[in-house]
Design a protein that fits this description.
The protein has 296 residues and is α/β, with parallel strands linked by helices. It folds into 2 domains: 252 residues, Spore Coat Polysaccharide Biosynthesis Protein SpsA, Chain A; 39 residues, no CATH class.
């Protein structure tokens, strides 16, 4: 069984849900308290033991690569001003992990973005993390999936339960429980099902552990929902060939590509921030105590 060493993070999307903020700034660089969203994603990868990140980028995304690079000029300025703590923080970011960038030249969907990584990933299993999907947990979500992979030796999709009236917004899996905790054997998948076409509430979120055969199916998958190459279609084909598991991860997930999800992430992370948490909590309490506030 091959070890999981690489993670693919597609960051080529235009971020239209956050316009006009994302007209000039990649959505993955929008800040949650004191770090851009993409840094939280990469830190999860690092904490899970991954050795290499493959960013699938597009035009206008150079800020993401620059964030994880060493900036000699900035380091020199901080050194002159004796900002040791900031220098150490930036040094830590630039040395987090080896990062490779691959350009997706056309916006042909998530499936196509992952297919672009085939030559860098090679013939080994790998992780996929969406660049605006945050998961906060005691054990990193990717680490949870790797631990399960070490038992099942097959592809895994991370899932969470969603209200049935919201299933049309997600890729949905149907499966049967296994003897493994929080784990299901996948039987069927459907991308954004129309109401009444699936009884499942198990939604795929932005974490996947995939066998390299997925590239064969992505290379032959025809455009599906929205005229894009859907990852879900290739996942279903892969599951029919060699099996696949769905894992109901432990932790809290935030859709940071959605305005409300982004705000929820900011509030929760700020409340836990060692330097800001106590003061921020006092502020929220004062806001909610205001008689004119809608939350009172």
């Amino acid at each position: 069984m091959k070890r999981i060493r690489k993670a693919v993070i597609p960051v080529a999307g235009m971020g239209t849900r956050f316009l006009p903020a994302t007209k000039a700034i990649p959505k993955e660089m929008l800040t949650i308290v004191d770090r851009p969203t993409i840094q939280y994603i990469v830190e999860e990868v690092v904490a899970s033991g991954i050795e290499e990140v493959i960013l699938i980028t597009s035009e206008g995304k150079s800020a993401i690569e620059n964030h994880f690079d060493y900036d000699f000029q900035l380091d020199t300025v901080l050194k002159q001003k004796k900002k040791r703590a900031l220098r150490d923080e930036l040094s830590k970011i630039s040395s987090l992990i080896d990062i490779v960038s691959v350009r997706q030249k056309e916006p042909l969907g998530l499936g196509h973005a992952i297919w672009m990584a085939r030559n860098v990933v090679g013939n080994e299993p790998f992780l996929v993390l969406l660049g605006d999907d945050l998961v906060r947990s005691k054990k990193p979500c990717c680490r949870q999936m790797i631990d399960l992979y070490n038992q099942v030796s097959e592809s895994i999709v991370a899932i969470q339960r969603v209200p049935r009236d919201q299933t049309y917004q997600y890729g949905i899996i149907e499966g049967e429980e296994t003897e493994l905790d929080r784990t299901f054997k996948v039987k069927r998948m459907v991308e954004k099902p129309a109401p009444g076409t699936s009884n499942s509430d198990m939604a795929i979120i932005g974490r996947y552990l995939l066998m390299p055969e997925i590239f064969d199916f992505l290379g032959t998958t025809t455009p599906g929902h929205g005229g894009e190459i859907q990852l879900t279609d290739a996942l279903l084909a892969l599951s029919n060939k060699r099996g696949m598991y769905a894992y109901e991860f432990e932790g809290k997930r935030y859709d940071a590509g959605d305005k409300l999800g982004y705000l929820k992430a900011i509030v929760d992370i700020a409340l836990d921030h060692p330097g800001l948490g106590a003061s921020f909590r006092e502020h929220l309490q004062a806001v909610c105590a205001d008689k004119d506030c809608a939350c009172s």
